[in-house]
Specification:
The structure holds two protein chains of two kinds.
Chain A (H helix, E strand, L loop, with lengths): L9 E7 L12 E6 L5 E6 L3 E7 L13 E8 L4 E3 L4 E3 L5 E4 L7 E6 L4 E14 L23 E17 L9 E4 L5 E5 L3 E6 L7 E5 L12 E6 L6 E6 L4 E5 L11 E3 L12 H5 L3 E4 L5 E5 L3 E6 L8 E4 L8 H6 L9 E3 L5 E5 L4 E6 L4 E6 L15 E3 L8 E3 L11 E4 L5 E5 L4 E6 L3
Parallel strand pairs in A: 28-29
Antiparallel strand pairs in A: 1-32, 2-3, 3-4, 4-5, 6-7, 8-9, 9-10, 10-11, 12-13, 13-14, 14-15, 16-17, 17-18, 18-19, 20-21, 21-22, 22-23, 24-25, 25-26, 26-27, 30-31, 31-32
Chain B lengths: L9 H10 L5 H9 L1 H22 L6 H11 L16 H7 L5 H15 L4 H16 L4 H8 L2 H4 L5 H15 L4 H17 L2 H16 L4 H17 L2 H7 L1 H8 L4 H9 L1 H25 L4 H9 L1 H6 L6 H17 L4 H10 L3 H22 L4 H9 L1 H8 L2 H15 L4 H18 L1 H15 L5 H18 L1 H14 L6 H34 L5 H14 L5 H15 L5 H13 L4
Helix pairs in contact in B: 1-3, 2-4, 3-5, 4-6, 5-6, 7-8, 7-10, 8-11, 11-12, 11-13, 12-13, 13-16, 13-17, 16-17, 16-18, 17-18, 17-20, 18-21, 20-22, 21-23, 22-24, 22-25, 23-25, 23-26, 25-26, 26-27, 26-28, 27-28, 28-29, 28-30, 29-30, 30-31, 31-33, 32-33
Classes of the chains: A mainly beta, B mainly alpha.
């Protein structure tokens, strides 16, 4: 695959969502996730809805237009609730979606809000039964006297119908807000992590889960760090990692003991004393952790950078990429408008050669690991003509602004790209701006 | 409903058929459960050609409907025309065997296994075996997991060519890409080995077993431990060492605690399967390691097996093995850091005394019992107390009584009411073993104190406990020790305690007999009918109803009746109600 900084160019493919600038809170996209084949793409929003897009069968006549994603199914996954015991409102916002490996003709996904995880089945139906004994097909009852024989209904073809049905509800296991869910490669368990604990569930059992990590101190005043993200290793079923607000990542081996309070590896980069400031701890907090597909590396995202760690080296990352270093001088105002607490996610491309993450002003960044090149692109309505090539953007960090450069001061911090996803094989990416989902793909020559 | 022209008998069936597609799940479920009625009405021909095709395509339905359907189809052979046509049931069961719900799939497989027996050998090869193959090579892992459960039922009844194919399919599934399928194969490995010829067990099964036991996923490896039991039972003793033991040794030292847990959990079965020689040489050290495992879950599982393991050791040097190898580990477990380990041990440790005999028990086990009786965790103490009978037979309980008493007293006063409840339940057993004298001296006060516990469940259990004690020690003992104290509570200022008197009388009257009931209890009950608390008064009515049958008719007429009649005119509604009920039950009106 050609790197994004090299020959490859990205072009606009589709944009989903309303066009007007007036954004309804419920429409804000809160998570984006491709399934394992890339044929389906799911988004979750603050209104508790899940929308699934399906890639159309490729059009052989127009090879330059790769198949588009169209709405396949939309359903309300979570509803707002109220915890009467604690007097707490539970938002319906979908925090994470994870697809399960396909096990039969239907598709399954886990979706979670702050407290409750649900397993959904998305299935197709193309037949319907026909033929009643006691009534006509339109519902009118027949005269029972006319029944002289029995009729067994037959199934006849009908228009394809996609149904989403809740199969399991995993509730009441989290005191704090769930930030991550991750399906294990053993196909039967998954983990869910909140601020202080990680639980292990069997996908078929909803009435109990096992607590595998608990960092809650006996006295909450001694609390110094929280869990920010957790993920299972893609191949080793016994390994998972969790990241903390202090910028460390712990790798745990579930074979060693039932309670994984003692990590087997601790990934931590010594702090550079020259960069120390009031904001050091806040910006070092890890907002996302993702294993590479091959399981050799993991990527972490903190406020200003993306780091790639080799699982075999704990003392420093093998690669560090600056996402928006020009913000370092703006941390004070970013603290005041709370942007410094934004949780940016990150993702790998299909062969782990490129990583992607979001930034402000609807910019998103790609880093080509082999060629050590990076690129800033923008998701905007102006670029939304079919197959229009995205122009790389440049932010001017100070000094004299060149033509085509954008000044740091003119960046719009309300337009942020927190959630992105990369097709598991192809160069197709999904980028969520506030309430729009952009799909881009590489330009096919 | 059906008119004169229609066929009366058709109407209910027509309803059932229509409800197969009703919106309401409950109605669909009802219809599916009466599927045999529908099939009977349709006759075998239409069942085969119309009903079954319809059912084959209903896999969209709710799990509970599908589960019921899968179960029904297992008993459908006669309804489709007998064994000759049994293969017509395969298509719907095949589609049920691919759904995502494990319970439904398992039920479909169970029904398939059942009807496989009704296939003729020819049909088995023509219809059943192709289905197994289709499932085994299905695209989705749900179908492949289902296939794993079907090999063993068709293997014994097919030709040798087909047998070779089946073995090949099983082999393929054992190395499937999905752990789900490998787990299904691993869990059926033992069952499949049982129907295989011994040569194939040695050539095929052993290599599969070894591969599964070293699978990269521990969820697969742990299932191989179970298969180990069945395989070891099938092999001649001389082959065990070379074919099974290397794998078993490896499992007992697996890096994953879940695999070691499984070994500990299956230890008794493994011990029986490999026989006494290997047990002595291999399993004893393995068991020692499991008792010392770094993971508490494993230690607890092993601790649970201590008694069974020791019991099953070869008798000739059992005592020596236990004393030199097992007991030192057990001693360490008594002071384990994990309370689940200690309480697992406490639930079986007393059993060792019968195996080791009086002298060893006094010298080696008794200090351990005593230490556990003083354990900080109530569950440990309770487990020791609940198993006292084992020691009683060997050394007599007197040896323990000095330590027993403080332990019992402490549990009796534990802050958690469930702990108090548990010890009350052992009281009759303890009383029986300690004897009446010891009981009167040390435990009687406790039993009485529970009657005024502030938790109702404890007061209730204490009442029931008194009844059991009276059954054990007799009416005379009751009259001297219990009844006066119980009746004394009738004057307690707390109405809850006064009610406890009534509850005790209810429980004790029968065991104490007519004399005590009439002469001592009845006057107290009658006096309480003037209580100012209505709850006490209506409980008087209930008590009178309860003890009425024990009294003689004279007392009933002259003493009980007037009181009940008075209560029946009480100002309180409930008092009236229960008084009237008592009058009518005792036929005093």
């Amino acid at each position: 695959m050609a790197g994004p900084g090299g020959d490859m160019q990205w072009c606009f493919s589709q944009v989903k969502g309303a066009i007007d600038d007036d954004v309804a809170e419920a429409d804000i996209i809160s998570t984006v996730e491709f399934n394992h084949t890339g044929e389906l793409l799911a988004t979750g929003d603050k209104g508790g809805r899940v929308v699934i897009f399906q890639q159309e069968i490729e059009n052989k006549n127009q090879p330059q237009f790769r198949s588009e994603y169209n709405v396949y199914s939309t359903f309300q996954s979570h509803e707002p609730e109220f915890d009467y015991l604690k007097s707490l409102e539970i938002e319906e916002k979908i925090n994470k979606i994870r697809w399960l490996p396909q096990k039969n003709a239907a598709q399954f996904l886990l979706s979670t809000n702050d407290k409750t995880i649900k397993l959904w089945k998305i299935s197709e139906r193309d037949k319907r039964p026909e033929g009643y004994n006691l009534k006509e097909e339109d519902g009118r009852y027949k005269d029972p006297n006319t029944i002289t024989g029995l009729r067994v209904p037959v199934l006849i073809p009908m228009d394809l119908m996609v149904e989403a049905s809740p199969r399991r509800v995993f509730a009441n296991a989290h005191t704090y807000h769930i930030n991550s869910i991750s399906v294990n490669s053993d196909d039967e368990t998954y983990l869910s992590a909140d601020d202080l604990r990680i639980n292990l569930w069997n996908l078929e059992i909803t009435d109990r889960s096992f607590n595998i990590v608990d960092i809650k101190p006996a006295n909450m005043e001694e609390l110094t760090e929280v869990i920010t993200a957790a993920e299972f290793h893609p191949l080793q079923c016994n390994t998972f990692v969790y990241s903390s607000s202090k910028g460390t990542i712990r790798l745990c081996d579930m074979r060693a003991s039932a309670l994984c309070d003692k990590h087997s590896k601790l990934f931590e980069e010594p702090e550079d004393p020259s960069n120390r400031s009031f904001f050091s701890e806040i910006i070092s907090s890890i907002s996302d952790v993702k294993f590479s597909h091959n399981g050799r590396y993991m990527m972490t995202r903190d406020y200003l950078s993306v780091k790639i760690w080799d699982l075999n080296m704990e003392n420093r990352p093998v690669e560090t990429y600056q996402v928006h270093e020009y913000l370092r001088s703006k941390l004070c105002s970013l603290y005041e408008n709370d942007c410094i607490f934004d949780k940016f996610e990150c993702c790998w491309n299909g062969d782990d050669s490129v990583v992607m993450t979001g930034s402000y002003n609807n910019f998103f960044r790609m880093f080509d690991r082999g060629q050590r090149r990076d690129m800033t692109l923008e998701a905007s309505r102006e670029n939304s003509k079919p197959m229009q090539v995205l122009k790389p953007r440049k932010v001017c960090a100070g000094g004299k602004r060149k033509k085509d450069e954008i000044s740091v001061d003119s960046l719009d911090f309300n337009k942020k790209i927190l959630h992105t996803a990369w097709h598991p094989q192809d160069n197709i990416i999904a980028v969520a701006t506030t309430n729009n989902l952009y799909i881009f793909q590489d330009k096919v020559n | 409903m059906a008119g004169a022209d229609g066929d009366d008998s058709l109407y209910p069936i027509a309803v059932l058929i229509d409800e197969l597609r009703n919106e309401d799940v409950q109605l669909r479920l009802n219809s599916i459960k009466k599927l045999s009625t529908i099939a009977l009405a349709l006759g075998v021909e239409r069942t085969r050609t119309e009903l079954l095709p319809f059912l084959t395509d209903t896999i969209y339905d709710e799990d509970e409907v599908l589960l019921a359907l899968a179960e029904q189809l297992g008993n459908f052979t006669m309804l489709v025309g007998g064994p000759e046509y049994v293969h017509c049931l395969l298509p719907p069961l095949e589609s049920l065997a691919t759904v995502e719900e494990t319970v439904v799939r398992d039920k479909a497989v169970e029904s398939l296994r059942k009807i496989s027996q009704e296939h003729s050998p020819v049909d088995l090869e023509v219809h059943f075996e192709p289905l197994v193959k289709r499932l085994a090579s299905g695209d989705w892992f749900t179908s492949r997991t289902s296939a794993c459960g079907l090999f063993s039922v068709c293997y014994p009844r097919v030709s040798s060519t087909v047998k070779a194919e089946i073995r090949q399919h099983f082999r393929t599934l054992c190395s499937d890409d999905t752990p789900m399928v490998r787990r299904a194969a691993a869990s059926k490995l033992g069952e499949f080995a049982k129907v295989l010829e011994l040569d194939y067990v040695k050539s095929d099964i052993i290599s599969l077993f070894t591969a599964l036991a070293s699978d990269e996923q521990d969820s697969v490896r742990l299932l191989a431990v179970e298969a180990c039991v069945s395989i070891a039972t099938l092999l001649p003793q001389e082959d065990l060492e070379s074919l099974v033991m290397p794998t078993l040794r490896q499992a007992a030292e697996d890096k994953s605690w879940r695999v070691r847990y499984m070994v500990a959990d299956k230890f008794s079965e493994l011990q029986k399967a490999v026989g006494p020689e290997i047990t002595k040489n291999d399993l004893v050290p393995a068991f020692q390691n499991l008792l010392k495992d770094c993971e508490a879950e494993v230690r607890a599982a092993a601790a649970n097996k201590v008694k069974e393991f020791c019991e099953n050791l070869p008798e000739d040097n059992r005592e020596q093995i236990i004393m030199t190898h097992i007991l030192p580990c057990v001693k360490e477990l008594v002071s384990d850091t994990n309370q689940h380990v200690k309480s697992a041990l406490a639930s079986v440790i007393m059993g060792l005394s019968t195996i080791l005999g009086k002298d060893n028990t006094i010298e080696h086990l008794l200090p351990l019992f005593l230490a556990q009786l003083k354990d900080e965790c109530p569950e440990v103490r309770l487990n020791i107390i609940s198993n006292l009978d084992c020691v009683n037979e060997v050394i007599g309980i007197r040896q323990l009584s000095q330590s027993l008493l403080p332990a019992i007293v402490e549990l009796a006063e534990d802050a958690k009411w469930r702990v108090r409840l548990a010890i009350i339940e052992y009281m009759p057993l303890l009383a029986g073993q300690l004897g009446v004298e010891f009981f009167d001296e040390k435990l009687n006060t406790l039993c009485m104190a529970w009657l005024i516990d502030h938790v109702y469940a404890i007061r209730e259990a204490a009442t029931c406990n008194l009844m059991k004690l009276v059954e054990k020690f007799g009416a005379e003992w009751a009259q001297n020790t219990i009844v006066p104290k119980v009746l004394g509570m009738a004057n307690d200022p707390n109405y809850l305690h006064r009610m406890t008197t009534l509850f005790c009388i209810n429980a004790l009257s029968e065991a104490c007999g007519q004399d005590i009931t009439t002469k001592q209890m009845l006057p107290v009950v009658l006096k309480m009918s003037n209580d100012q608390v209505a709850n006490v008064r209506f409980n008087v009515a209930k008590s009178l109803q309860k003890i009425g049958p024990v009294l003689d008719s004279n007392a009933l007429q002259t003493e009980v009746k007037p009181v009940l009649e008075k209560l029946a005119t009480d100002t309180d509604m409930d008092v009236k109600y229960f008084a009237q009920e008592a009058i009518s039950v005792l036929v005093l009106a």
